[in-house]
Amino acid sequence: MTDVGPFGLSVRDQALEADVQAGLAAVEEGLFEATKSEVPFITEAAQHLVRAGGKRFRPLLVMLSAQFGDPYAPGIVPSAVVVELTHLATLYHDDVMDEATVRRGVASANTRWGNSVAVLTGDFLFARASHTLADLGPEAVRVQAEAFERLVTGQILETAGPQDGRDPVEHYLDVLGGKTGSLVAVSCRFGAMMSGADETTVDVLTQYGERLGVAFQLADDVLDIASDSHESGKTPGTDLREGIPTMPVLRLRERAARLGLADDIALCELLDSDLTDDERHAEALRLLRAHPALEQARKDTVRYAQDARSALAPLPECAAKTALVELCDAVVHRAG
Description:
Order of helices and strands: EEHHHHHEEHHHHHHHHHHHH
Strand content: under 5%
Distance between the termini: 23 Å
Number of domains: 1
Number of helices: 17
Shape: globular
CATH superfamily: Farnesyl Diphosphate Synthase
């Protein structure tokens, strides 16, 4: 039994372990190849986050989903490179929007080179993803384009906020479905699709990926409040500082509106104040870490992870299915 990747996914089947390890190694090579430029500075900026590592969560899902068809089909590794390049590109852009200073334990690209270079590097990665995608056929291009549209829509919805009368929690879950669920779903879809799995299997794995992606982001929300930078690889409370409401904050506000407790209202007022002040920010983090809203956000994570697990029910029992189920547990554990 071997752990694959930073997620600590336990693979009990030697053949599956070998396939996944070989696939991820090939993806890593593909990422470095795809981020090379004739201009050395562009190569340095484009490989900044590749070299910083990461969970390679999406490529892992491509490899596991490919086990339901031919796991050695030629399109599998390139499609995994596409989804990871797309994900990396969004990180460059996210860090600019969030004014983040740390990503994956290293200085963010915008901190190191400025916002313009970070945005343009993200664009460069999108271009390289499209170049690789073009060789995978028109259906793959369509699937990726639809996912990218959903991803951008989710980001815009987050920026715009919920319309009047819309439940903020429902709005936020829609945001996560677009921002995170879409690309995780495509990872599973590409793995199954490129392996030649039947249409039902492709659909099942796509639904699984969508739900797992939301659970994954909800776990990140909890981790952003509950962990220190050593655990998460980025500055804790970044969204809090920027006034972006994540699930723990939304659950707090929901509770404050429902119960009207003075402490809850006071914490909401603190969150609405200027949290660029380090002392206020630290106090807000301290209070949120001890608040029942954080536990409610953990329960939301568990619910989506269980939904993802349930989606796998139609698939035949096999080592890959077991690994996908265990990923649900791993996501929940991150939020524990």
